[in-house]
Amino acid sequence: MKTHCIILVYSMAVCVSGQISDHKDRTPSDVYNQSKVHMKQDGRHQPEYYSYEQHCPDAEDIAPCFCTYHTLFNAMDLNCSAVKSEEQLKQIFKADFPFKNFRKFRIEHNNNLKVLEADVFNGISFKKIYMNNNNLEVIELQALSSCYETATEINLSANMIISFPFDELSLFSKLSHFDISSNSLSVIQADAFHGLTALE
Ligand SMILES: *[C@@H]1O[C@H](CO)[C@@H](O)[C@H](O)[C@H]1NC(C)=O
Ligand SMILES: *[C@@H]1O[C@H](CO)[C@@H](O)[C@H](O)[C@H]1NC(C)=O
Ligand SMILES: *[C@@H]1O[C@H](CO)[C@@H](O)[C@H](O)[C@H]1NC(C)=O
């Protein structure tokens, strides 16, 4: 079995093994469509699909968050699970983002954030927001305002949330999955979900 390696920018080595014949007429896309691509960059992430296109912000500008671009879906994901503080998260979103619309956003199993601050994402939007299993206590009004028109899924389960702006939920026009289970909310306003037509 042959192993093909391509050296990309930033000295990343992409190795594709198995299933690939030496047909000269195959394009890189064909390869990515069929094979898992293993990418090593400080051993930090291994997206299933990777392309030469550089849609993500510069890695050093957004560390310890990291961005992955998926050729197959033409989509970028951002994982900020290792973020150290509210202040750091805010700074990261002041970096230069060549493309502002992401697919997935993650902060999971993080103990460093208590507050998700208003407008923290600075205009960057996400479709799927996974912020489960953290120690978040407060989601401020307009913390997710950049996602009003994009968010289909917001998962805040298993935090310590005592305050969430439920009235704001009706502004998320495409939201179909919202999970705020296993938190510390005492009273959920009776009309919290009023006007949330997309919710299943
Ligand atoms: C993957 O294969 C499908 C079907 O052959 C094709 O429509 C699609 O454009 C391919 N994707 C890429 C990234 O080449
Ligand atoms: C997100 O990043 C954290 C650490 O930075 C890592 O442990 C986790 O596996 C990543 N999640 C995904 C889905 O890539
Ligand atoms: C939210 O995330 C938790 C933990 O990963 C998962 O168990 C739950 O099913 C998710 N909720 C939804 C609506 O997908």
UniProtKB/TrEMBL annotation:
User: Which residues does UniProt assign to the signal peptide?
Assistant: 1-18
SUPFAM superfamilies given in the database record: L domain-like
Q: Extract the InterPro entries matched here.
A: LRR_dom_sf
Q: Does the keyword Signal apply?
A: yes
Task: Tell me which UniProt keywords the record has, alphabetically.
Answer: Leucine-rich repeat, Repeat, Signal
Is Signal one of the keywords UniProt gives this record?
yes
Task: Report the PANTHER family cross-referenced here.
Answer: IG(IMMUNOGLOBULIN) AND LRR(LEUCINE RICH REPEAT) DOMAINS, LEUCINE RICH REPEAT CONTAINING 53
The name this protein goes by in its record: Oplophorus-luciferin 2-monooxygenase non-catalytic subunit
- Show the taxonomic lineage: Eukaryota, Metazoa, Ecdysozoa, Arthropoda, Crustacea
